[in-house]
Structure prediction request, 195 residues.
Amino acid sequence: MIYLIRHALTEANLAGSMVKNYDEYPIIDFDVEKWYEKAPQELKNIKKVYISDTLRTRQTAEKLFPNAEIKVFKWLNEFDCSGLGDKKFWQITEEEFNQLVDLSPELIYGQCFHAAIRMDYINDNYGDAIYIGHGMKMRALIRFFKLGFQYKNFKFGPKEFNAYRLINSLDEDFKNLDICSIDLNNEIIDIIKYN
Prediction:
């Protein structure tokens, strides 16, 4: 089983600011017991957690899984939308977004493809694992797996990925501390909402 978790809320999330992978925003404290009331109980026994290389994903992992080994997994790093500057992504049109952000469907598809291949390998060789990342990347990965199960292969192509739709949660809604379980064997995806 693969588990995707979006990092805990930060002040940047509350402000609606786009941040980059290297921006070090600490998480806002949250109720771990409340999270575990909704989370699958087997997560308490997870031994490995993979994170992007940011403070917010590391703090989320340490708070939720204090006894697990934490490893950086570069394929979880967020897409670069720094071209937006101070603009709020939900306040601009798709055309404006595409002029400001160089994020092609091919790039999104390629990163998801490489992440999925490695996640499948880790799952086959080391068992269930948790991946903690960022909103846009997590939504892209969920979409990637859904399309893979729908088409019965992962050859559906980049045309299915639209950065503007991903950033605005138009295809997949996945908020901070939500959990997505992906059962590769039975091709089942389930999303558990934190709030």
In short: The helical segments are 11-15, 32-38, 55-64, 94-100, 105-126, 135-151, 163-167. The two ends are 23 Å apart (CA to CA). The chain has one domain: 2-192.
